[in-house]
Design brief:
- The structure is a single chain.
- 37% of the residues lie in helices and 24% in strands.
- The chain is of the alpha+beta class.
- The strands form two sheets. A six-stranded antiparallel β-barrel has the order 1-2-5-4-3-12.
- Strand 10 (224-232) and strand 11 form a beta hairpin.
- The longest helix has 73 residues, at 26-98.
């Protein structure tokens, strides 16, 4: 047995030496490798398939998670863009109001609308400024286009403004072209004022601008109020029927301006410091016809 094992070892060494020097077994090894490759592939297939499935699942989970994160970021960015658009529009409105040439010499206070009275027979709005900010009864309220109304109720942190279209509101006005003075009355409609007791012979044209006359010593003179929209002169009637449209955007504005007329600035400031309302004559409604 020992002799046989020694002979096998010597034969193996001889064959290995012969193959190393002359490459006689190379073809046999290549043939055996081709025959054994399918077997090796089948043996490693479960492990390879498992690794592929694991990688594919991990990649899919990563893509799903990344997609959800991107969608969330997109929604947040779109919401911020909407907010930026609103801020840009608000900034434009405030710039337009504050740069109005008619307001250069007046003390100004910007207020926001908190609520609007939905009663069809009233035209009122709640503002976010009150007596702590110096607001008083009779305080003129404007926007960038013209007069909106006046404050009728005041609390420390808020106030109620009556719009010029309220049925109980009246404001002294003057025709900018002719200088004719009149009273503009609210009708309860959002875009309609009426001017009573104007003779048929008066020089009035559609498109004439009405401005505050300042005779009530509440609204400073020269602020736009409305434009004449309709004139009906019936010869059988002593007075013309005149309808005007407010220049202020009463139904669309979100920010308003509270102004202090020059002759009231010192008085209103001192009264606001004392926590009192403006004088009784300033708390009354504008004169009516």
């Amino acid at each position: 047995m020992a002799m046989r094992a020694a002979l096998l070892v010597l034969a193996s060494v001889f064959l290995m030496t012969l193959d190393h020097r002359q490459q006689h077994l190379e073809t046999m090894r290549a043939t055996l490798a081709m025959v054994l490759y399918p077997l090796e592939y089948l043996v490693s297939l479960p492990a390879t398939a498992g690794n592929w499935a694991s990688d594919a699942f991990a990649a899919r989970s990563h893509l799903i998670s990344e997609n959800e994160n991107l969608r969330s970021r997109q929604l947040k960015l779109e919401a911020r863009l909407l907010k930026f658009d609103a801020l840009l529009a608000e900034n434009s409105r405030l710039r337009e109001m504050l740069q109005s040439p008619r307001m250069v010499d007046e003390r100004l206070l910007v207020a926001e609308l908190l609520a609007v009275d939905m009663d069809p027979f009233k035209r009122q709005a709640v503002l976010n400024k009150g007596s702590l900010a110096g607001v008083y009864r009779g305080h003129p309220v404007l926007d960038a286009k013209g007069v909106m109304g006046q404050v009728t109720e005041v609390s420390p942190v808020s106030s109620v403004a009556m719009l010029i279209t309220d049925p109980s509101h009246a404001i002294p006005v003057q025709f900018n072209r002719s200088g004719l003075r009149a009273i503009a009355l609210g009708t309860g409609e959002a875009d309609r004022l009426e001017l009573p007791h104007i003779p048929n012979t008066a020089d009035i044209r559609v498109g004439d601008l009405l401005v505050t006359s300042g005779l009530d010593r509440r609204f400073p003179p020269g602020y736009p109020v409305a434009k004449i929209q309709h004139v009906d002169k019936d010869p059988s009637q002593p007075y013309a029927f005149i309808v005007a449209r407010p220049t202020a955007e009463l139904e669309r504005v979100r920010e308003v301006l509270l102004i202090w007329p020059d002759h009231l600035t010192e008085t209103s400031e001192s009264e606001a410091a004392l926590g009192e309302d403006a004088p009784e004559e300033m708390a009354q409604e504008a004169p009516s016809s």
